[in-house]
Amino acid sequence: MKNKLTPRQAAMEAYLSALRLRDLETCRHSLRVSRLAYEMAQELAWSEDRCRKLKEGALLHDLGKLATPDAVLLKPDRLDQGEWRQMQKHPAEGARLISVTLLNDLTPIILQHHERWDGGGYPYGLKASEICEEARVLALADAYDAMICRRRYHDPLPQREVLRRIEEGRGTQFDPELTDSFLSLHRLLR
Length: 190
Description:
The structure is a single chain. The protein is mostly helical. It is built from ten helices and no strands. Helix 1 (7-22) packs across helix 2 and helix 2 crosses helix 8. It is globular, with a radius of gyration of 16 Å.
């Protein structure tokens, strides 16, 4: 007999199945990002509950892409300005989707994962400690995976270049202390 899922696990599975059906590439990206974010949270010595919450938020961080039109989501080239504005709606759409469910504690993580340390992110232009720490960790894992893996619109970058770009984003795109931790963790995992 199969193990029975808790209501929370069932909701996670349902959302992941929808994402997998909508865009397998985005689902695979979410799985990789979730694993990396979880490893980083463990390295930061967060409680297991907090690590699990980040892992779940990372799994669903791109859930809002369910609402993104195919012409934008599946476009094989760079997005134009109008398409980019549509894509920038996915954090708010994902947060909206889960905000009325028993996964609503993940809302800030999903909503804030594209905010930047310097306030230049979206959807609200939050900066520094206005961004929840979980979303700041997720931003690093998300950016790393987006650069290191083949995407519809670009080839993977060499590892050295990816790490250079992350280091370059220290204090602008990314939390400086978390960037240092991410780079240290990466060196340990090599």
